[in-house]
Amino acid sequence: MTMSLKKPAVTLLTAVAVLVSFFLIAAYRRGWQRFWRGQPPQLAMPRNDNIYELPKDLPVPVDDGACNHLVSLQLPSVALTSTGGHRVDLSSLKGRTVVYCYPRTGRPDQEIPKGWNEIPGARGCTPQSCAFRDHYRELQALGAQVFGLSTQDTDYQREASQRLHLPFELLSDSALTFTRALRLPTFEVEGMTLIKRLTLVIDSGRITKVFYPVFPPDKNAAAVIEWLSANPVK
């Protein structure tokens, strides 16, 4: 009688052990595949801060006049790779387009560059992107296409796009072709050339409004909506 009661328990433990072994082997193989692709498996360590929130007492950027030349400028023809796998030439798009240019999105498992929070306007790319995501339907209703743009490569941007569930595409200017053609303001951090945060409203290839500097970043989408509502496409 005692043996008959133990057998189901033993069978259940065996099944659990087999299932755990299966997942461990699968995880090991995935790590091995990453190794052969030149990306050794790494344990993700959480950051010391919350990437989705803006810290208090961030330094406020000031208008240094670096974008004064942009209004009324016709965009140059530059094809940028998007996270959707497309080549997007902003100069050729008809109608109204909103492009928010940001320095760089961080990742939950990576620390920010040293001194990042002390650079005026640097912090806040994730909250800004989330705000444009949350206001996306309103922006569409106002007749605007939306893109994010940075100098990070497409693979890096794609991770952010998927993790944040962005309904629009991010554009990569990793070669700085667009940035230099428009003479956009930039800054250097740890060997990276990054765009200072700004947002462009473009009508059929011509810049009609520039938001610069942008602060706080998570309020930028709302500010753009307010301007679009007051300045409908003619």
Bulk shape: globular
- Using the 3D structure, state the CATH architecture of the largest domain: 3-Layer(aba) Sandwich
Helix content: 25-40%
The protein's oligomeric status is: single chain
Percent in strands: 15-25%
Spans of at least 5 consecutive residues whose pLDDT stays below 50 are 1-6, 25-45
Output the helix-strand order.
HEEEHHEHEHEEEEH
Strand count, sense and barrel status of the largest sheet are: 7 strands, mixed
Q: Tell me how many strands there are.
A: 9
How far from one another are the termini?
A: 87 Å
User: In order across it, which strands form the biggest sheet?
Assistant: 2-1-5-4-3-8-9
By CATH reckoning, the class of the largest domain would read Alpha Beta
Kindly report the average pLDDT value.
87
The count of helical stretches stands at 6
The radius of gyration computed from the alpha-carbon positions, rounded to a whole number of angstroms, is 23 Å
Could you say what the CATH topology of the largest domain is called? Answer: Glutaredoxin
How does the helix and strand content classify structurally?
Answer: alpha+beta
Going by CATH, what is the homologous superfamily of the largest domain?
Glutaredoxin
- Summed up, the domain count is 2
Report on the architecture of this protein:
This protein has 234 residues and is α+β, with helices and mostly antiparallel strands. The protein folds into two domains: 1-42, no CATH class; 79-230, Glutaredoxin (3-Layer(aba) Sandwich). Helix content is 34%, strand content 19%. A seven-stranded mixed β-sheet has the order 2-1-5-4-3-8-9. β1 (79-82) and β2 (87-89) form a beta hairpin.
